[in-house]
Each structure stands twice: as structure tokens, then as C-alpha cells.
């Protein structure tokens, strides 16, 4: 399918990178704080007491979240009674209402190395507004006082335009994260060496009350692509207006790794040109990739990252790219299909 966006499907097996901090720490009392550790080049939360660390199961579960109310019919503004669209699901559900690529910027060698990131983000925004792209985060059995919170992330659902609800698709399986809630400090935890210095200040910084996930393989479905997997996938967000009864996830960030082998199979269609996604990564070894500027300006570094795919095995780290996206998600009612 052609669309003003970027890729087609990918899949790869991976092991954690040695230098990437892949599990958050946090706690639920006033001793927590968060700060940027400029000496190590990473942004990490720090604690004054014992840190609460959770790990994701990385599990792809096969059923919807638990159902709650009876699914009774609701009344519309004209006094008529409308049947519910499905079986209500308990928890706090959020639909991504804004998403934009922040890092890396993507360049078109065929067009004199023009920065195409804004154009791509415009296509994503249009698809989200038209409800063609529906990424959901469900805080299952939401408890604002819990140290951890189970989130189910769905790459797609049926979210009618103009409605404030979504209905899950039985064929779309979620990824489960056991995330950490924080009442103090910040929830940003990234390795700065994987972000172009020119883009660091554009990353969202979620502060308490906030939630941060561990890492797991995360599937996305956006305009022009099938199910795309981000490896070492992670998200963080601030509860808005607070964690007692949040209506949105704001100042949110989502990121993950795309290996070179997968990036080489992805294509982006622009003005009837089919462009290799790996060629859009500045400083990559693709023959059509744009070179890194030699003027010494901020950000004049390659956007290629590495990930150790086999852990402590004999293989060297694999080149690829970490994709960072800012997002906002709005509260919606969520239903399982009848």
C-alpha cells in the first residue's frame, strides 16, 4: 500500500544491548527524584531510598483485558437508547492523538538531502486525525496508589471518528508492560548516545506523576506500514491532570530499535519514488544516504546506532537506528467485541 509515510513490515530476534539502560527504577514516595546525568551521557531517575524496579514480561497475550460493567445501553442526547458497541473493559484506556518522529531526522538523497521528517510527521498527524491509525494504551485495573501498573499496548483498534470510544480487534494482540509509577522526579530514561545532540532538547520530558515502562518488543501500526516491531521498545508519560483520575497521557515518549537488516527492507514512497528507509538515515552505509555535514555544527554526527543482538555471544554489535517519537494520548472508553 502506498501512503505519505514510511515503511513495510519487519521482524527480527534480538538480545539486549550492553550499554543501553533497559529497566527503569522508581518509587512512590517523596524521596524519588530525577535528573540528567551529564557525566554518563544518560538521563536516569535517582532515588533516595530503595528503588522499585520492574521488568516487562515482553509477553504477547492472547485475550482482551478483563471486562467490567454489564454493558447496559446508554442514552443519547435525543433521549433514545443506544446499544453499547461491545463489552466494556475495565481500566483507563488512552488513544494516541498525536505522534511525531523526533530522532533521527530523515533525509532524501534524491532531493539534495532535504530533511523529510516534517513531511512524514504531517502524514502521520493526518492519519491519526482521520482515525486511520489507532494506537492504544490500556492501564489494566488502574490503581493510582500502586507502585507498578500493568499496561497493555494495542497497535490498532476500531475507533470511529467523532466518537469517544474504541472497540478492540480480536486479531490484534497486545504487548504487556509492568510499568513503574512515580510520584516524584521524572520518567525519562534514555541513553543519550543514541540520540542526535541536535534533537535532545526536542524529546518530551515526562515528570511526576508519571509512568515509565521497562523494555519489550513493541508492535506499531501506522499509515503505510503493516505491523512494525520496535525492539527494546519503551514508553514514558505524565498522567494529566494527575494520577487520581487521568484524562490523558502527556509529555510522552516512545522509542525502540530498528536493525539495519530490517531498515533495508522498509520503503517509503515519495512523489512516485520508492525510497529505501536505510538510505534516509544520515551517515549510514547505504550508497544513497546523505553524508554527515563536516561544518562541525551541532548534530553533525551519524545517526546510526548499534545493538548487541546476541548478548555476550561472538557476534559484534549490529548497526541500526533507534527511533524516538513524542506522543500524546487521550482517554477513551474501551470495549471488547461481542
Quick summary:
The chain is mainly beta. The chain has a domain at 25-63 and 86-99 and 127-257 and 320-336.
Describe the structure.
There is one protein chain. The protein has 338 residues and is mainly beta. The chain has helices spanning 117-129, 260-263; strands at residues 25-26, 32-37, 42-47, 52-53, 74-75, 81-82, 87-88, 92-103, 107-108, 114-115, 136-139, 148-154, 165-167, 175-182, 190-191, 210-212, 216-220, 228-240, 248-259, 267-270, 273-276, 305-307, 318-336. The strands form 6 sheets. Strands 8-11-12-14-16-18-19-23 form an 8-stranded antiparallel barrel. Strands 2-3-15 form a 3-stranded antiparallel β-sheet, with no helix packed on it. A two-stranded antiparallel sheet has the order 1-4. A hairpin with a 5-residue loop joins strand 5 (74-75) and strand 6. The chain starts with 24 loop residues before the first strand and ends with a strand. The model is unreliable at 1-72 (pLDDT under 50).
